[in-house]
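Below is one protein, fold included:
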Amino acid sequence: MVTVTKSPLTQLDSTGADTANTSRIPSRAILTKEDLEKFQTSDTYTGIVQFIEKLSAAVRGKRLREETEKSQIVTSLLSILDRLDDWTREILPVDNSKSRFGNPAFRTWYDRLAENAQSLVEEIVPGIEAAELATYLMHSFGNRKRIDYGTGHEAHFIAFLLCLERLGLIVESDYVPLVINVFWRYIDVMRGLQFSYWLEPAGSHGVWGLDDYHFLPFLFGASQLADHKYIRPKAIHDKDVVEEFSKDYMYLACIKFINSVKTASLRWHSPMLDDISGVKTWAKIAEGMMKMYKAEVLGKLPIMQHFLFGSILPFEGVSGHIHLAEEDEEEDPCGQGHIHAFGQEFPECCGIRVPSAIAAAAGGEAVKARVARPLPFD
C-alpha cells in the first residue's frame, strides 16, 4: 500500500474544521464474507448506491440522442474515451483463430493504458489524487491476465466517476451527460474491446444473467423509459421497435446487441430478460434493477473481493488491506488472485472460463466493423 500526502483536497469534519487527508493507491479490503457484510453497512457502500440512484433518476425520460450541455469535465472524459477507442483500432488482434478465448493483443492494449492512465487522469485531476483515480480507470477495462471483463470492472468505472464527484469536479448538472454521453461512450469503447480482443465474460451467469458483460445499461435504460407513453417492456420482442428506438434507449440498444450475437429468441438465450419483459412498467423494472444490482454485484463476494478502496472511497475490512501484484497471481489456481484461504472453494468462487460469444459469432471483416454473425443457439 502506497500512502502519500494529499495537498489540494481538504474536507470538513463535523465541527466544520479542515482536516488533513492522505491520498492512497486503492487496494483490496473485502476478503471474507465478514468483510462484505461490514462493507454493506459502510458509508462508501451507501455513497456508491446513492450515486447510481441519482444518475438513474437524472436520465428518467432522457434520450441518448438528446442534446446536452457538456461541462469541461464531461468534454475531457469523452476525449479520454475517444483516445482509448483509437488504441483499439491501432492495436490489431493477433492471429488467434483456433481459440474462442481472449486475444493476447488485449495485453498490449492494457499495457498502454497502464503506462498512460495517470497522465490521462492528470488532464482533469492535476493534483496528487491523479494516481488514485488512475487505478480506478485502469480497473474499469478488464483483467490483463485473464483477458476478461465483467460487472466488477464496470463498477470500477462508476467508482472513478464517483471519485470525481467527491473531488468537486462533477456536479448535479453533469449527471445527464455523464450517463447518456460519458457512460454510454464507455460502453461503446468496451464493445470495441470485446469485439477486437474477444474478452471473456468475467463471472458469467450464463443464460441466467442479464448480459455477458454489463448490468448498468439495463438499469439506466429502464429509467430512461420509465415515463414513455407507448413503449412497454414487452416491446423488447418487437424487432422493429428495438431497431428504431435502440438509437435512443440503452435498454433496447442492449437487446439489439444481444440479438446480434445470439440467435433464437430471448426466451432461450436470455430467459431473465424474457421474464422481466412481463413486468407492467419500466419504473418497476428500474426499481427492481437497483435491488438486483445491490444483490448480484455489490453483494457478491467473488465480485467485490476485487473492488478497490483508497482515500476517496475508503473502507477497512476485518482482514485489513491487501495489494496483490499481477505477478503474484501466477501461483493462484484460478488466475483471479482470490484468497481461497478465507473459506472460498475453487471453482465455486471463480466459475468456469467461458469463451466469448462474440468470438464464436464474429470473424474477419466482421470484427473490424464491430458487427457479428449470430451465434446459433443449441
Summary: The chain has one domain: 3-367. The beta strands are 3-12, 18-24, 27-28, 148-149, 200-201, 308-309. The first helix runs from residue 33 to 39.
